[in-house]
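Before drawing any conclusions, I looked closely at one protein, both as residues and as discrete backbone shape codes, quoted below without any editing:
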Amino acid sequence: MTIPHSGSVFLRLRVSFVCSFALPTVCCLLTCAADGETKTKPVYDVLVSNRFRYESDATGPDTDLWQYVSASARGLLDGHLDLRLSGLVDYDLNGDDDIDSAYDQTWPRVHEASLDLHDYGALSHLIVGRQVISDVDYLHFDGLSLSLWDGGKVSVFGFGGRPVSHYSGNGGEWLAGAGLRWRVLPTTEVQVDGYGIDDGGGDTVASAIRVRQYFRSGLGDTVEARWIDDELRDATLRLYYGVPGKFDVTGRVYWQAMELGAETQTLQSRYFSMYSDFLGPAERHISVSLNATTYLGEHYSLNFGGAYKVISDNDSEGGENFTNIDSSRVNAGLSIADLPVPGLTIDMYGSYSRHPEEDLYDLTAEIGYRFSPTLRANCGVTHARYDFSDYTFFLDRFDQLVPDPNGGKQRSDSIYVGVHYEPSARWRISVRAEYEDVDRMENAYLVALRLDYRFRSWPGT
């Protein structure tokens, strides 16, 4: 079952990239010009984060710089209009393209650039531009979305546009869908949604039923079932329970019911696409996880967890996706705060993971101290042990894998130190240095610097 190119059950909206950004810009100018006439003063928020990293290991040195910008203006038009803009620019300073060789670094990656007109009677939100819808699936697109009667017993929403791609052209691609939320009980909400998408791998229909329940303070669950065309794709059950200052527990059961492999059109979904997790190749499997934190008085907290994943058909283990293997993991940690002196923190944690023919564990100990409300430093050590396959990646003259004389075992020990300084409410500086000693490989080291600036106005200022 596919969506025809004409007469589709979904409204096909092809909103161009230029219009998506021109509308927010024009509206920004109009609202700023009329700002003096509004009754409610807008709230402005700007974050500029610069992140520099230099590292060197067996593959050679690498120097990168990221610049992240996020800006918003909320409460324009007497509290009915919000503008949002965020994006990332990355620079490969030494020219080896390690940070993202698949992406053209000439242009910034714009994550969001939208206009949100909201709270006009039945109209809850009308958003135009580049946006993300996260309570359906993670849908990132240029277009528009509309929601009515949010917060009521029944609410509806719709959306459409063109999927965002930072890695290839998206000509001819489209996305459109709609959904309904029904508050069956004060503690229970049911959402039914569906959408059609063509992100380069052919037309696909996705639909879902999602149930959210809140039984009491700190206790709830979510249940979700999703379909691709007319076949069940997966189902998820998540339970959580927590008492502030005492404990919190989260459990999750996931069933991948549908095999998405080379015989399906979804395999053609663009790699690196935000939609690849949903439309990309996967084998049938079941995974279970449990994570918990308990607070032992004022100064101590203990966390632990585990996960297990089993592939339904062992003959198809691996295949198109290297993560499609049986696996298990356990982890535990202990945190101590303000003992034996105020401002001192001690953290110890470790994990153990096992896969077919390989396993690994790591142990970390960290100590930190807050010298003042604006200055904090920490340092730690990590020991890791890897046990990979007993063979190397090299072939002998008979095209057989060469055995590893060390049995696939490898050790790694690292030490790191960090300093975090906030000279004012708007500025934050972080520095981190790390050195790693690795068996049978060249040792590695890293230096990272982060400089953040944040400006936020408050209502009435």
User: Anything to note?
Assistant: Confidence is low (pLDDT under 50) at residues 1-38, 262-273. The helical segments are 17-33, 76-79, 276-279.
